[in-house]
Amino acid sequence: MVATDISPTTRETAQQTKAAARQLAVLSTEDRNAALNVIADALTAASEDIVAANQTDCANAEQDGISSALYARLKLSETKLKATIAGVRDVANLADPVGQMQIHRELDEGLVLKRVTCPLGVLGIIFEARPEALIQITALAVKSGNGVILKGGKEAIQSCQTLTRVIRDALSQTNINPNVVQLLTTREEIRELLALDEEVDLIIPRGSNSFVRYVQENTRIPVLGHADGICHVYVDAAADLKQAVDVTVDAKVQYPAACNAVETLLVHQQVAGEFLPQVAIALQENGVELRGCDRSLEFLSIPQATPEDWSTEYSDLVLSIRVVESLEDAIGHINTYGSKHTDSIITQNPDTAHKFLKSVDAAGVFHNCSTRFSDGFRYGFGAEVGISTQQMPPRGPVGLEGLVTYKYQLVGDGHIAATYSGENAKPFTHRTINN
Amino acid sequence: MVATDISPTTRETAQQTKAAARQLAVLSTEDRNAALNVIADALTAASEDIVAANQTDCANAEQDGISSALYARLKLSETKLKATIAGVRDVANLADPVGQMQIHRELDEGLVLKRVTCPLGVLGIIFEARPEALIQITALAVKSGNGVILKGGKEAIQSCQTLTRVIRDALSQTNINPNVVQLLTTREEIRELLALDEEVDLIIPRGSNSFVRYVQENTRIPVLGHADGICHVYVDAAADLKQAVDVTVDAKVQYPAACNAVETLLVHQQVAGEFLPQVAIALQENGVELRGCDRSLEFLSIPQATPEDWSTEYSDLVLSIRVVESLEDAIGHINTYGSKHTDSIITQNPDTAHKFLKSVDAAGVFHNCSTRFSDGFRYGFGAEVGISTQQMPPRGPVGLEGLVTYKYQLVGDGHIAATYSGENAKPFTHRTINN
After folding, report:
1. B226 vs chain A: nearest CA distance in angstroms?
2. CATH class assigned to A8-217
3. Would you put residue A159 in left (φ > 0), alpha (ψ -120 to 50) or beta?
4. Residue A139 and residue A120: Cα distance in Å, rounded?
5. Of B365, B366, B411, the CB nearest to A368
6. Which CATH class for the B231-373 domain?
7. Which of B220, B368, B395 sits opposite A412 (nearest CB)?
8. Does A393 contact B at CB distance below 8 Å?
9. What is the pLDDT of residues B82-103, one digit of tens each?
10. Could B243 and A406 be called an inter-chain contact, meaning their C-beta atoms sit closer than 8 Å?
11. What are residue B55's phi and psi, to 5 degrees?
């Protein structure tokens, strides 16, 4: 990690955000939800300006020869904007993640402990082209009582500046200090943001694998996200092969660029001869390019996979195939090459499934279903702030609960520790209080 | 962070621990608890050897001119050993932190999501003189299904080697691979341990503030712990002053070296004239040295506090005193100089207390009670693995739940994501299943 000089302006911006976030943290659920609706109204009223600013960005990007994929992400049509604004109102309607009581316990008569969720503080969000991400993330930050420092892609600068201005103006009509939302505009400020470990409590990077890895390796601030999504489907000896074909095709084809798409198919040697030709036809009909280990080449005419394939997230219609000796062999492969994202077993044998779910070290361990279900919305979280592949919680798809922490509140009536120490120590009651 | 070369031996040790921990992770509650009792039996049987090894360490330490405080910590008497072994059996009787179901939800008919706690993997523990810490930590690791790489103080090397040998021999008679417990013996290995981010999932440093800060600044592995414990008691204008005296004395005097002891007393200006002389007498009777801000010197004949005092954890019978203008002033002081450990307000005004508990950014926010209650055993967690002052959970006193993570298990019957996408998308049911 390289030491970074932080400009006085950036430091001051961050301190302002922190101060404003502390004011926001004590506001009521109603205050925060009302502000979200004011933001939604303001964005609706300013739709023309926002779309115009985005058109300027798009025109500039075209001149710079932007790729068509990036252009599609940059473009903020009126329809996309409307849907995003509707999403802000949806966030207002979600349950409040702040103020949830997780523990309520009497330690002794009149001495009551509560563990209550509270905002983290300030979020640092770095995202690429998509300008609507700014709206979504700001809505989640306000909902969870956090300040947010945003850094968008330089190609979206006009869009981001307009959106930030509209949102800050809207907040100035509410009980929330507009300084809770700040926009950084230069690339140099990313390094500065990552160095602000006194002011920023969580970094959420949205971008390429290499960018996320860069962020993880260059900050002491906790990072919510994942670099690689190397997901596996393992087809066991006791698999329903028709089901195995359907799940494999879905996991690869339904949205190959997604982090929860499958990259490597593992097949038990007992069923390789029957299964591989079937699945290969189904995948190739969907335009999937296959690469196989030596043993799989006995059954398929496809290029040979190199060891590098096992560690590659293709994010495309490419799939590597490996024949394994046993369940243990499959688990070993996944725990060696996987990225702890999501791995699925296809089997009709419950004991085998149980062993797989216990032994595979990943945020998502699935049985007889597609890896593509690994997603906050599909899990029913209402919103997704990211998918984490780290070992400590929060792990996997993370909803609003990833944007809050907790504090212990202890209320007594003059209670002192000496009462509970030494020879005549009074015992604690440690009685759970039901709400 | 400086890149560290890891010797092949240390890397291999860590990989063995990781492999053994993966086997341990799938064992049953009964297997893990049985192993703890086998360990307790073996330690009892080897008591003589252990005490003898410790006597060698103590003799060597005396020759090296060790301080009497460190000697007291190094010394493992038969009584202390017995109590520690009893603690191992207590850990066996605690509820299993592994396999707890946190979410149980139907996503659609036949597609069921569970979020289940599971072991973290491998813990890296660095502790100082106290050899019984090795026993306690190993018991908590086995209970929670984790491997553990231990690094004890060099002054305790004979004790640690004997204890590790006894524990590993005991494990070889159980279903647990003895490689789950490893001991590092050289100081150089601390740097290596901190660099093992592929193999080690959590570092728990036990030692001085500066050592913990060194660890936090020199590893990419998550660290559970705290450097400073700068705790405050704020005596509000509406305080019961008798109560305020009792709590202040308890918070400072009951165990001044503890991280949850008070370091700075904040007093509202309206009650400073009445309260300060009372509390000063009570504290000075207990041998506490006082240092005060300018305004407090109007009421007390004590040395002047310097700005450095507000950021100092004395860990001794010393207390700094500051008179504040208002509640907001007190909150501002704590949020500026505190270490997010534990801060307490003394007031009879519930609104003032409410604002303090909401606005102070700390793991523990207390009302009318001593900061000394901030402790895993007092909170009723059964065991404490550390106290964290970081912003993200786990925060505050951390019990066994700090040694586990979770995974999402999704079980279907051939379910694919395509069914729930596009024009004729089937809606999810997202129905909570009650157990």
Report:
1. 15
2. alpha beta
3. alpha
4. 15
5. B411
6. alpha beta
7. B368
8. yes
9. 999 999 999 999 999 999 999 9
10. no
11. -65, -35
CATH tag, A231-374? 3.40.309.10
Class at the top of the CATH hierarchy for domain B8-96+124-217: alpha beta
Tell if the CB–CB gap between A372 and B111 is shorter than 8 Å: no
Taking contacts as CB-CB distances below 8 angstroms, the residues of chain B near A391 are 120-121, 201-202, 222, 405
Confidence of residue A307 (pLDDT cuts 50, 70, 90): very high
User: Alpha-carbon distance A337 to A312, whole Å?
Assistant: 9
Pick from A4-8, A67-71, A418-422, B69-73 the range whose average pLDDT is largest. A418-422
Q: With a threshold of 0.90, does the pTM exceed it? A: yes
pLDDT digits over B340-373, tens only? 999 999 999 999 999 999 999 999 999 999 999 9
Position B124, amino acid: G
Q: Which residue of A has its CA nearest to B390?
A: A201
Residue A25 near residue A119 (C-beta atoms within 8 A)? yes
Tokens at B210, concatenated: 């500066």
Q: Which chain B residues are within 8 Å of A240, Cβ to Cβ?
A: 414
**Residue appearing with tokens 């207590």:** B90
**Cα–Cα distance measured from residue B306 to residue A378, given in angstroms and rounded to the nearest whole number:** 56
Say if CB B138 and CB B122 are below 8 A apart.
no
b/e burial code for range A37-46 (CB count within 10 A of at least 16 → b): ebbbebbeeb
Q: Which of residues 194-253 of B touch A (CB under 8 A)?
A: 201-202, 216-217, 220, 222, 240, 243, 246-247, 249-251
Domain regions of chain B by residue span: 8-96+124-217, 231-373
DSSP B207-253: S-HHHHHHHHHT-SS-B---S---EEEEE-TT--HHHHHHHHHHHHH
A338 touches chain B (CB under 8 A): no
Distance from CA of B159 to the nearest CA of A (A): 29
CB contact at 8 A, A312 and A231: no
